[in-house]
Write a structure and sequence with these properties.
Layout (H helix, E strand, L loop, with lengths): L11 E4 L10 H12 L7 E6 L6 E7 L2 E2 L1
Parallel strand pairs: 1-2
Antiparallel strand pairs: 2-3, 3-4
Length: 68
């Protein structure tokens, strides 16, 4: 399994329980992290979200000062 460059630098991984509207862009997911998790989306964390059917994950992370 190959890992994307920079993912080994992440300090923690968080999986959002429940349903997330994946139509939200990066900014919307970052707001969700701030409001729901009371965390800073610009830290070295990886946040994983799922849609209602739980068949499409979406990730939010800051790697080298870039949200992806």
């Amino acid at each position: 399994m190959s890992y994307a460059k920079g993912y080994h630098e992440l300090r923690r991984y968080y999986l959002a329980c429940g349903v997330t509207d994946l139509r939200r862009a990066v900014d919307g997911l970052a707001i969700n992290v701030k409001q729901e998790f009371k965390m800073d989306p610009f830290e070295n964390y990886l946040f994983l979200f799922c849609n209602r059917a739980r068949n499409r994950p979406k990730a939010l992370s800051r790697i080298r000062k870039v949200l992806s």
